[in-house]
């Protein structure tokens, strides 16, 4: 997929672990891991809202389009 | 747990056991009857599972097919054979019928078990439903081919032309049901994809 998820970069910048983020947003570590590793096929707006609120970022900070090839 | 699916799973379990016991019983009886018959020099016959409807047979009258004959009660074709040959063919036919039937029931049970466990759109369910549909189509197609073959074989000797009778064994409804099941399998496949998407939706 051409959409790169930069959740790990944001967690590093915010000095936050995936487990901490999971507890703050109310989403399981397993699901956040699916998002972090780029395996997710879709993201709910509620999830995006919660993550951006806790990481104090914009949705555009979380995703990047990388053309294939 | 889905009550209906759970019940159907249990019914299919009982059906499989009943079919296995029934097949063993039939085979035992055939061996018990035909083997002693051979030693006594008795004659036996092989009855083919294809033929014509009794009303059709009445129109045909007393017709013979070489050494064979058409039964007036059920329209089936019978040929004389040695008891050992008859026994071998009967047992082979029993296997040909029972084994696919058991495989079919096993597939059907697996599908209902998946529904019972709350996983109707598991990855393998679509494949199993497709095989069920193909099995139904194969069954009715083979019955139709057998019926047409028998009709053509019986018609060839007539100097007045082919029998003006529609051969038995052709069941368009059965073929339609088979294709409908295959179409249902496509719906299950689509459901499986939607489920995968839902599982990977964060």
Characterise this structure.
Chain A has 69 residues and is mostly helical. Chain A is built from five helices and two strands; from the N terminus they run E-H-H-H-H-H-E. Chain A is 55% helix and 9% strand. Chain A starts with a strand and ends with a strand. By secondary structure, chain B is of the alpha+beta class. In chain B, strands 1-4-3-2 form a four-stranded antiparallel sheet. The longest helix of chain B is centred in the N-terminal third of the chain and has 37 residues, at 3-39.
Please identify the oligomeric state: heterodimer
Can you count the beta strands of chain B? 4
The topology string of helices and strands of chain B comes to HEHEEEHHH
Question: What is the spatial order of strands in the main beta sheet of chain B?
Answer: 1-4-3-2
Helix and strand element order of chain A: EHHHHHE
Level of helix content of chain A? 55-70%
Major beta sheet summary of chain A: 2 strands, antiparallel
Give the overall silhouette of chain B: elongated
Largest interface: A-B, 12 and 5 residues
Q: Give the overall average pLDDT of chain A.
A: 92
Widest beta sheet: strand line-up of chain A: 1-2
Features:
heterodimer; A: 69 residues; mainly alpha; two-stranded antiparallel sheet; 5 helices; B: 202 residues; alpha+beta; four-stranded antiparallel sheet; 69% helix; 9% strand; elongated
In short:
The complex is a heterodimer of chains A (about 70) and B (about 200). With about 70 residues, chain A is mainly alpha-helical. Chain A contains five helices and two strands, in the order βαααααβ.
Question: Secondary structure elements and their pairing?
Answer:
The complex is a heterodimer of chains A (69) and B (202).
Chain A: E1 3-5, H1 7-13, H2 18-25, H3 29-36, H4 45-55, H5 59-62, E2 63-65
Antiparallel strand pairs in A: 1-2
Chain B: H1 3-39, E1 44-51, H2 54-60, E2 64-65, E3 68-70, E4 76-81, H3 83-116, H4 123-155, H5 172-199
């Amino acid at each position: 997929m051409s959409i790169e998820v930069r959740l790990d970069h944001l967690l590093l910048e915010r000095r936050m672990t995936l487990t901490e983020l999971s507890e703050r947003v109310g989403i399981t570590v397993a699901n956040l891991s699916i998002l972090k590793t780029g395996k997710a096929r879709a993201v709910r707006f509620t999830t995006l809202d919660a993550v951006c609120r806790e990481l104090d970022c914009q949705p555009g900070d979380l995703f990047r389009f990388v053309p294939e090839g | 747990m889905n009550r209906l699916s759970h019940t159907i799973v249990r019914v299919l379990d009982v059906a499989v056991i009943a079919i296995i016991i029934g097949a063993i019983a039939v085979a035992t009886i055939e061996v018990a009857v035909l083997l002693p018959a051979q030693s006594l020099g008795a004659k036996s016959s092989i009855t083919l599972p294809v033929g014509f409807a009794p009303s059709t047979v009445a129109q045909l009258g007393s017709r013979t097919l070489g050494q064979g004959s058409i039964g007036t009660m059920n329209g089936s074709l019978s040929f004389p054979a040695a008891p050992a040959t008859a026994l071998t063919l009967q047992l082979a036919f029993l296997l040909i019928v029972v084994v696919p039937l058991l495989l079919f029931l096993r597939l059907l049970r697996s599908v209902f078990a998946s529904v019972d466990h709350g996983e109707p759109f598991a990855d393998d369910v679509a494949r199993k439903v497709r095989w069920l549909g193909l099995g139904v189509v194969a069954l009715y197609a083979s019955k139709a081919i057998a019926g047409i073959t028998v009709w053509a074989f019986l018609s060839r000797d007539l100097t007045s032309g082919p029998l003006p009778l529609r051969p038995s064994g052709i069941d368009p409804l059965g073929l339609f049901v088979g294709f409908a099941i295959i179409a249902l399998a496509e719906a299950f496949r689509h459901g499986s994809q939607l489920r995968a998407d839902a599982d990977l939706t964060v």
